[in-house]
Predict the 3D structure of the following.
Amino acid sequence: MKQILTTVFFIGYTLIVNAQAKSNKTENENSSFKASLSYISNDVYYGRQDSILTPYITPTFGYYDKSGFYVDGSISYLASSTSRIDLGTIDIGYDFKSGDNFSGGVYASKFFNSKNSTSVKSQITADIGANATYNTPFISFTGGADLIFSQQTDFIINYGISHPFTFGEENNLWTIEPSIISNAGTQNFYAATKTKKRNTPTNVKVSGSNAFVALDYEMSLPISYDAAKWGFSFTPTYALPQNPISVTAPNGTILTQEKLSNVFYAELVFYVKF
């Protein structure tokens, strides 16, 4: 509980500082439309994954205002033998920067899942959250919190460190940013997916999904290139999931326990702005 309150205080303090300070955006940051196309090798969510590989191809189109407000929409196509449109998403949010050290954002997302989806987040209907970053000359500290809505609401926090290495100059910039992130929270979203997939009988229950625990630890190495009107990024990630859920009988006997395994996946994104 102390860890949750500390993270919420940090995010709240950052948002208050931003509200009281003038934005530090430059004159070169203009409103724009942005279209992107991404490919992710496996749909991994807080270290959880389906038993079969779930790769997605996702086109996204959005409007990004110079004030920091944005809205976008995307459609995720399941690029496997059972190909289909598996997910639609609408996002709305506000990004800010205050001074040279603080930045962050608030956002909300609505999800439209295929009834045939086997994704570990296929029972999630919406997500609202906030994040914040504090930069020092040597390291960046990040923190965030989300409310995830499925059959029951989940509260999840994340915190991590990173350090960007940049090469080039504006409109011709390479960035490499090694990152380590920890995610913690409840996992009712995962229990709902597993219950639906197994058709779990009513006389048994899923245990552990309401506990606030470490979900996973993630190590990633984002590499990006940004020009004036286009760019791309490549993000390989290695996730180490923690605290599996279990299915128990009415007397408390564990019938099965979810098997979690470390997983490597990567995402490639191309975008254009106009």
About this structure: The longest strand covers residues 84-98. Confidence is low (pLDDT under 50) at residues 1-28. Residues 2-20+32-273 form a domain with the Porin fold (CATH 2.40.160.40). The chain has two helices and 18 strands.
